[in-house]
Design goal:
By secondary structure, this protein is an alpha+beta fold. It has seven helices and five strands. Strands 1-2-4-3-5 form a five-stranded mixed sheet. A hairpin with a 5-residue loop joins strand 3 and strand 4. Helix 5 crosses helix 7. The longest helix is centred in the middle third of the chain and has 22 residues.
Length: 166
């Protein structure tokens, strides 16, 4: 069990022993927990250990602080569909082999409508640094924003504005 220490790096050193309950309590930013950024129904239903390592957690924390918190401050609560994915989970959900989700550098944000997705997309494009910003949707009518961010500051600011016209 992890005890409360003043140094986050000390806590991160012992993450391989972190329980799911500890992940639920570990806050990456004011409003986002580690658990929220690693939770996956697919991982749970297939018994996949989707616990990120220390570097992946640091990446998730950076993503939360630099993009997700500003988005939440502007729009209120947001829902993360997918944050971190271990290799096994990424393969299970048919993610691309070099997905930034594997490194804790990406999140997919659920949107209730095309209108909300457009608002989120535009806010991130204008107010946040990002590596990739993708407007995504499926034929079933689901909309989400994929956003990624690298800590090394070599972010491409790649935008794909794939808005549906109907």
């Amino acid at each position: 069990m992890i005890t409360n220490h003043s140094s986050d790096s000390f806590v991160l050193f012992f993450l391989t022993n972190m329980t799911l309950e500890e992940a639920k309590r570990k806050m990456l930013s004011e409003h986002f927990s580690l658990y929220e950024m690693m939770r996956s129904e697919t991982a749970e239903s297939h018994n996949i250990n989707n616990m990120p390592n220390a570097t992946q957690i640091e990446n998730l924390e950076y993503l939360c602080k630099k993009i997700l918190e500003p988005l939440r401050s502007n729009f209120g609560a947001i829902i993360i569909n997918s944050g971190f994915r271990c290799l096994e989970l990424n393969e299970r959900v048919h993610g691309v082999g070099n997905s930034q989700h594997l490194y804790g550098q990406a999140a997919d944000i659920r949107c209730r409508s095309k209108y909300i997705a457009r608002k989120y997309f535009d806010f991130i494009a204008i107010h946040c640094t990002f590596d990739q910003l993708l407007f995504e949707y499926n034929r079933g009518g689901a909309f989400w924003i994929h956003v990624s961010l690298k800590r090394d500051e070599k972010n491409r600011r790649m935008r794909i504005e794939n808005y549906p016209t109907k």
